[in-house]
Amino acid sequence: MKLQIDNLDGNGPIDYTSALDPTTPPQLNRKLNQPSNLKLSLVANTPTFLVPANNARITLTKANAQVLFTGYLSQPVAYEYLGWGISGPAYRYSVTAQSDEIALDQKRLPTVAPFINRTAASALIQLTQDISPNTFTTTGVQTTDSIVTYAPNPQETWSKQAGEIAAEARASYQLQNAALTLAPVAAAIHAIDESDPLISTEALTLTPVAAIFNDLTVIGNLEPQAYVTDYFVGDGLTYKFYLSQTPFTKASVVVFDEEYTEPQLDPSRWLVTDPSSAITVSNAGLQVAGGTGADGATTVQFVEQIELGGSVVMQHGDFVFTAASTGVLGGLYPSSILASACLAGFQISPNGTQCNIQALINGAATGAVLATVATHHYVLTTLIYTQEIFRRQQIFHSSLHPSGNGYGGATIPANVRLVLQVHDIDPANPATQIAPATVLYDGVIAAAPGFCTYAPIDAANLHCVVEFTRLLQQIDTEVRSALPGQDYTTLLVGTLSDGAECKTTSTELEFYSSYTPAANQTIQVFYRGSGRALARITDPTSIAAQHRGANNGIYAAVRHIKLPPVRTAADCENAALAILDDATNPAWKGEYTTWSDYLPGNATDIFPGDGINVNFPSRNATFSAIIREVEITFQDLQGEHSQYKITFANDAAELLAITFQAALVTLPADPLLQTNTQVGQTYLADLTSAQVTQIASTAITLNAGQAPPPGGGIEVRWSDFGWGPSNNRNLLGRFQSQTFTLPRLAQVQDFYLQQYDNSSPPRYSRYSAALHVDYPL
Fold first, then answer.
1. What is the pTM of this model?
2. What is the pLDDT of residues 152-162, one digit of tens each?
3. Which of 361, 459, 501, 588 could form a Cys-Cys staple with 515, CB 3.0–4.6 A?
């Protein structure tokens, strides 16, 4: 063994091998997706012995240069008095070190936007680069499964978050010798076989765990449920309208608020492509002066993708144009950053010495043109509204569905309403600060992509100054209004200073006083209701196999999942499938102790995350597991003979890729019971386009938004429960047509709709369409 310690005093690494205390063998502890720890003792063996300094770098290798550990002292050296020697007091020096993660754990993670729709490899590299750019090599980071969303937390250490990212992808990371690696678990597999003469039977401990269950209820987060539309009408005086349900919202937060106060753009937030050096930051603004003349060649791009879900406000900035320009501002791009591929943005084109601003939709200039005026400021804003809050299912893994083959991950289709508007501010006219914005585009993109690249700047030849760029997630409500005889328009929900006309809270829609709805002005508010995500899934095959006499074979459990985030009932179902993959099998834990000369399969080293196949028929134990911990005691330093204690468990005993939390949650109701073969086939599509088409004093006409299934129909109820043919107490009717009329009995009335088919029993929608009418009789 060779021990080197660099005290970081400029003298480089010093060989401390001869100072190792032979009476206290060094011990190295490795844990899955956690930092490794090394403990050893030193005794002064020369007059020039130097006590290792705080935070010194330590390296332990074999004589053949095989690296066993690299890291840093994690705490000051401890002194143990041994007596009085020839040269004075003698001490044993206890050294505790942690692997290279400590260099990252001691730094604060910058506040960054959540990682969206990345691979685990990309997320892990980004997490590392954000803390310590270009310090660690990442060529060993393998592409694994996707992480739909992960929010880095500056309050947590790098290693904790790296471990979570790796576990979500059912992978293991290592950080050693300044190299970061990531690979699916069981990339290396070892065998402990009873027939192998080199396997020590007495050194093997196997522990069966009573953990089988085959009836699983999974509890997730609060989820978006009913598709709600509230209908109101103005009377010229009322400016507050009470919502029928509490809107679901991811969080009303500012994802980022860039004021351009630093001397350069933050690389943890922006990716800049600027071959002509046209982009600079000065005078508290982003200065754009020119470009290469080519589309997509000079860009500023946000590092994360934008999820086109819920309600998103993109304030691209306060722009002042200094010369005629060509380019695209505030662009959303499903693929490459090119004007022809732009889903939505603001096209800037020359108009004499000034510019024209026009909406760019699906690569084509669309709608009205706004001509700029010298010295005016133009605040460009894109509003995104969709009834689907999340655009991709979460991914869950098991031993049968490893990295790259998890449950879930499906794209959630949706139509997206896009509103592009310009707030024209004349510094010489204060009234323009709160004047209504000019809407350049208000339309729906059918089957819109779930995620887009956001590039606030695509400068072919731009000349402008940008004072800020801001991305907000608001309460997920869409408000539209129409005066009598006019078409509906989308209202900006937000602050008055941003040109908004109203705001929403968890209980009400409030208009600002200058925008109080006129008499007979109709108002529609679209949002999703909120409830707890739940699913209950059984495995009939396991139940039948466990059936013993009076024991019906059902073993039930309730689990509240922490990671990966379980955001919807569909996520709960996929999580349950992943858990049941392993929970219906025998659960095993074990330990095996052996010398390094006899490691299973003649391995030279073993790491947590390696797989292990156990075949011990005499103990009725044949299973595969994942190594969770490796403890190495270096008993013979000169001969390099070490003792390994390997701890392992299969997923039935200890889940690897799913973490539970102990917080108690009150279940609102028992979820629908499904078998593992019924998941994905139980529900019909939701009536996302249902609407009220006519309101009279005695009747209301509804349109379900789609024709009923053949042999099925549209079921309408007063309240959102009791769905099915056996319950009629809150039933308004079952209809075989898309449009139907119901009696109007009060000023305020609610209708809940689901479609059903002719199955036996019939299948229904997962969530209801909720139509709330608050009109004077």
1. 0.94
2. 999 999 999 99
3. 501
